[in-house]
Design a protein that fits this description.
It is a single chain. By secondary structure, this protein is mostly helical. It has a domain of 221 residues.
Length: 387
């Protein structure tokens, strides 16, 4: 970072600090709401995925089973077999689980830089709990809308995965893979496996480090939006987005939702769903916000990728593309009759319920991963003998 840019950032943070001090009530309310959302939804929803993925990587299972799934992932997405678990859990969890797993693969040299960037581009998704329950049930009051919303979101990302498969050139030469276990520093010592307690402790520590990072960015985004409202800075941004939406025959009143969604996905989606615009327009804008994910999530991803040689540019470009594709797909699919996906609708989504559903999704994801690995281990010679 050059000196001039550092100075401008310093001035910006100084202004932000002054606004924090001058608006204590708005800052406190935004912080309280963000931390309550983190405690009730994010922590129980992401903790099982983060611990399981980290522990599987440290035990060497991702590399082992990845060899069996190489024909499938290479043919579909031009990616190594180690990408299979990232794809499965990326579509059954929420951000930044996929980014954390991609960073771990790259640190262990289980993928090349271009493969890691390509994998990150289409495995970043909103949580199924959010798409199938929180938005349709909690924000729109109609569980049947969850299926087209989730289908548009996930299909848009899968299309990007197929389009990105040639990014970075042809199939690279395999890099030497690092051992999943550290080697002792004693001269002449052989590779030694750490005890299970140490591996579990590292996995839990890494998971909570990531979750605290998520909490920090959620709080920062919520406070920034609150200060923008207090100072009137959100109005011009909302009007600018409203004029842009009008070019596509969408109500300009949804510009405020886009402005909030630019920073924080949950707040922007809620604002879009609860507006007075027609249902189709609300879902179109909400789908676009969900694909974009928000600057808060992008900050989480950037922090998780810190220390690796993975670039953030392709990921950000993919989020813009996913938002636009998801908006088009939901617009095309909404008039069609869709089956109703019913989930329990309690008065509040308690942390225990979120944790139970998160464990269910984790179990289903791991079962799918292992089933695919078993099938390809048994039949890959007859199906893909020419690869």
């Amino acid at each position: 970072m050059n000196r001039k840019r550092r100075q401008w950032l310093g001035v910006a943070w100084l202004v932000f600090t002054v606004l924090l001090v001058s608006h204590p009530q708005a800052t406190y309310s935004a912080t309280h709401q963000a931390l309550a959302l983190w405690w009730q939804v994010v922590l129980p929803g992401l903790l099982p995925f983060l611990i399981a993925s980290s522990l599987l990587g440290r035990l060497g299972m991702i590399a082992l089973i990845g060899r069996w799934l190489e024909p499938l992932t290479r043919r579909l997405f031009n990616l190594p077999g180690t990408a299979a678990l990232v794809i499965v859990l990326g579509y059954s969890s929420g951000p930044p689980v996929a980014a954390a797993m991609v960073a771990e693969l790259r640190r262990r040299r289980l993928c090349t830089p271009r493969e890691g960037e390509r994998l990150l581009c289409f495995t970043h998704n909103a949580s199924p709990l959010f798409l199938l329950a929180a938005v349709p049930v909690g924000m729109l009051g109609d569980a049947s809308l969850g299926v087209p919303l989730a289908a548009a979101h996930y299909c848009a990302n899968l299309i990007l995965g197929l389009l990105w498969r040639r990014y970075g050139g042809a199939r690279p030469t395999r890099q030497p893979q690092a051992s999943p276990f550290p080697t002792r520093s004693v001269p002449g010592a052989v590779s030694a496996e750490p005890p299970m307690a140490a591996l579990l402790g590292e996995a839990v520590t890494q998971a909570f480090r990531t979750l605290l990072l998520v909490a920090g960015y959620m709080t920062l985004a919520a406070v920034a939006l609150a200060l923008l409202r207090e100072t009137g800075g959100l109005g011009p941004l909302a009007r600018a987005f409203g004029a842009l939406l009008a070019l596509f025959s969408l109500p300009p009143s949804l510009g405020e939702a886009v402005a909030e969604g630019l920073v924080e996905m949950t707040l922007g989606t809620s604002r879009a769903c609860q507006s007075s615009a027609p249902l189709g327009d609300r879902l179109t804008v909400a789908s676009m916000i969900l694909g974009w994910s928000g600057l808060s999530v992008h900050g989480q991803v950037a922090s998780v990728l810190a220390g690796t040689d993975l670039r953030l540019g392709p990921y950000l470009l993919s989020r813009i593309a996913q938002g636009l594709l998801a908006a088009v797909l939901i617009r095309l699919w909404l008039p069609e009759a869709v089956p109703t996906f019913q989930l329990p609708r309690p008065a509040t989504w308690s942390p225990l319920l979120v944790f139970e559903l998160s464990l269910l999704l984790l179990g289903l994801g791991l079962a799918l991963w292992l089933l695919l690995a078993l099938l390809f281990a048994l039949f890959r010679r007859s199906w893909y003998g020419g690869l």
